[in-house]
């Protein structure tokens, strides 16, 4: 008997924080935060990094969908810088 194919799990989306050379934190979303960080470093990412280059990916958080990642990004962007720094300090990469 033929079994139906297993449903393919959607690729997760991530919210991430990148530290700029001047100490600022940039928040964004991507389905591949390492690739997106490399784009930021190469100057092909956000205009945010034109004045101060990206130096470190300091936080990532997996989300089930793009819409969930966008909601989480909005919440993080509303945080005070001190709260964002706490996220970055507490982050333990896999």
From TrEMBL:
CDD domains: GIY-YIG_UPF0213. InterPro entries: GIY-YIG_endonuc, GIY-YIG_endonuc_sf, UPF0213_domain. Coiled coil: none annotated. Residues 11-86 form the GIY-YIG domain. Belongs to the UPF0213 family. PANTHER family: UPF0213 PROTEIN YHBQ. This is GIY-YIG nuclease family protein.
